[in-house]
Amino acid sequence: MFVRIETPTEKVELTAYAPTACYGPAECQLSQGLLDAYANGRATPAALLDWGRTRQGGTPKRAEREELLAAWGGTPRRPER
């Protein structure tokens, strides 16, 4: 799928891969929180885009993905039970 993010100063369209079958509930919730933060102006995709430009070596493991999503969206991470 494609994700288009528009701000008053720029438009960015990205390819977004959605293998959500392998994501846990916490990761899905953090992803939704990040999208909500973008939509409501509480966050911008700048950190995500910067990370993507410098990232080498594929997709991070679940714990790192959750930490990144929480940081980018400003969402406190809930401890796992």
Give an overview of the whole structure.
There is one protein chain. This protein is α+β, with helices and mostly antiparallel strands and 81 residues long. 44% of the residues lie in helices and 12% in strands. The protein is built from three helices and two strands. The protein has helices at residues 25-39, 46-54, 62-73; strands at residues 2-6, 11-15. The chain has a two-stranded antiparallel ribbon. β1 and β2 form a beta hairpin. α1 packs parallel to α3. The radius of gyration is 13 Å and the shape is globular. The termini are far apart.
Structural class, by secondary structure, is: alpha+beta
Note the overall shape: globular
Ends distance = 32 Å
* Order of helix and strand elements from N to C terminus: EEHHH
Mean pLDDT: 83
| Proportion of beta-strand residues | 5-15%
Radius of gyration from the alpha-carbon trace, in angstroms:
13 Å
Largest sheet strand order = 1-2
**Uncertain parts:** none
Sheet bearing the most strands, described?
2 strands, antiparallel
The helix content, as a percent range, equals: 40-55%
Produce the secondary structure layout.
Layout lengths: L1 E5 L4 E5 L9 H15 L6 H9 L7 H12 L8
Helix pairs in contact: 1-3
Please summarize what this structure is.
The protein is α+β, with helices and mostly antiparallel strands and 81 residues long. It has 3 helices and 2 strands.
